[in-house]
Amino acid sequence: MMQINGDSSTNKHSLINVMHRFMAAANNMDETIMVPSLLRDLPLDEQACSQGEANNNEPPCSNKQRDMYEHYLLLKSIKNDMEWGLLRREMSSGASFLEMAVKQEEQQPVTGALPLDDNADLERQFHYHLRGLFGVLSKLTLQADNLTSRYKREIGGGNFMR
Question: pLDDT per residue over 74-102, tens digit each?
């Protein structure tokens, strides 16, 4: 029987640890931001707004960039997908799990087994996606932390009262 090493959660380079850090940052963001609607129309990047004011050709804080509220919703959605899985979103459409599984199988061509090339390449594919997952989760963690600290600064400075 294969034994799972209990030290994987203490290894700072483990996938589980990176996932826990993102979940902790997202939970902290959720607990800190009590009134998410205050994030509406605030530019995601503080510097983008000040650069827009300096450049008279563009209106300050143009709509091309997401605001902090949309970013908050994105981080919260990703956190929910990680907690509950992608099937939960599909299941809320009303179809049962069995119906979704049958539908998914009908859409896949019947080939028996994976082609030999795909089986030989699985390790490389796994490492490619693992590196990508590490990178994305690390960036999302930083973004959740930055959003939380910016919310604290804005609330503390009274910049929301206009």
Answer: 999 999 999 988 776 666 665 555 555 55
Buried residues in 93-125 as b, exposed as e (16+ CB within 10 A): eeeeeeeeeeeeeeeeeeeeeeeeeeeeeeeee
**Entry pTM:** 0.66
Nearest to 59 by CA among 43, 72, 44: 43
- Please, what is the Cα angle at 119 between 115 and 122, to 5 degrees? 135
